[in-house]
Amino acid sequence: MAAARATLPHPHLPAPSWRTQLKPVPRRVVAASAAPSPALTASLRLGDVIEAQQFDRQALNEIFEVAREMEAVERGSHGSRSRVLEGYLMATLFYEPSTRTRLSFEAAMRRLGGEVLTTENAREFSSAAKGETLEDTIRTVEGYSDIIVLRHFESGAARRAAVTANIPVINAGDGPGQHPTQALLDVYTIKREIGRLDGIKLGLVGDLANGRTVRSLAYLIAKYQNIKIYFVSPDVVKMKDDIKEYLTSQGVEWEESSDLLEVASKCDVIYQTRIQKERFGERIDHYEAARGKYIVDRKVLGVLPKHAVIMHPLPRLDEITVDVDSDPRAAYFRQAKNGLYIRMALLKLLLVGR
User: Fold this and answer.
1) I want to staple 84 with a disulfide (CB 3.0 to 4.6 A). Which of 112, 127, 300, 335 is the partner?
2) Is 130 one of the annotated active-site residues of the chain?
3) Would you call 192 a catalytic residue per the annotation?
4) Total-model pTM
């Protein structure tokens, strides 16, 4: 089915139906390297999911409301399958390995009655191996599908794809750049677990230089009030200055620390990440210097407030010990399940609206 370009509806306004549109909304012409401006982020929010900072609080509230509805849809789908996206086809193009993101997108589409075209390890097994450009691949795939979910090894690839395509594009992670749907499910998880988003103290731990999940989460949590972020990482993978400058510009207090136990005692959320060996290239010495320095274990649980939670985008290696899993504050597998609901909500909003 060839669908015209749908829009993510502005809260409180009726969503236009793609069935009534005569042609796709004209594409934006955006330089791939350009820094996002307020006007750009506003237009991006209407058609693609490219970066975390494109969403305002109203949009986040709407997405989270629909995600709650999707929890009920998913529970009910065991009896009779939803037909909300029946006739729609989603293409997943993954140039990097993925388990949770790819499978949750595919499960989300199928739970809503849609169908999936998928390629895993597209870097090796698609025409990219023959030298085809990303733009040519996107132009081809959009002819087969109604929405494209892209994971790529290059930062900025999702923006290039969105500029090229006449159907919605969702960024499922672009190199060390961003992972906006992960940030959405992370913030949704914090809301569900803690009960609020304003006033949160958040500890980001691990590979902060290369971690697209922590970058996206920092952008998104900055939409809320009275936030404080603690950065805890080895020196070789400290959070980059662009995120720090953005947080400062948004009035978000942040602090760097080398003491995980002290930070854990103050936080509502500890967000642990793995040290990403694949981002170090040939500098294995830097990887070895970074791994294993900050581990969430029973000692961390001992100082963590009773109401707090531990999160992780997964996969984990040894940065959270397995004996933490049985503690009710270990929220990372609940967090992963929330990814299904957020992605169901996004697919519904982008393709058919409320």
Assistant:
1) 112
2) yes
3) no
4) 0.83
Instruction: Give 234-273 pLDDT, tens digit per residue.
Output: 888 889 999 999 999 999 999 999 999 999 999 999 999 9
Identify the structural domains of the chain with CATH numbers, from first to last: 18-177+339-351 (3.40.50.1370), 180-336 (3.40.50.1370)
Closest alpha carbon to 52 in 36, 67, 66, 64: 36
DSSP structure string for 118-141: EESSHHHHSGGGGT--HHHHHHHH
CA-nearest of 338, 203, 319 to 268 is 203
Q: What angle do CA 185, 190, 193 make, to 5 degrees?
A: 115
Query: 254, 255, 260: which is closest to 273 by C-alpha?
Result: 260
Phi-psi region of 226 (alpha: psi -120 to 50; beta: other; left: phi over 0): left
Q: Which helix (H) or strand (E) holds 24?
A: none
User: How would you label 144-159 residue by residue, b for 16+ Cβ within 10 Å and e otherwise?
Assistant: ebbbbbbbbeeebbbb
Residue 312 a catalytic site member: no
User: Pick the catalytic residue: 5, 45, 111, 151?
Assistant: 151
Distance CA 335, CA 338 (A): 5
List the catalytic residue out of 101, 137, 164, 189. Answer: 101
From 100, 244, 286, 337, active-site residue = 100
Choose, from 12, 19, 75, 130, the residue flagged as catalytic: 130
- Chain-centroid distance of CA 24 in Å reads 26
Q: How far apart are CA 336 and CA 137, in angstroms?
A: 29
Three-state DSSP state, 202? strand
Q: Give the tens place of pLDDT for each residue, 321-352.
A: 999 999 999 999 999 999 999 999 999 999 99
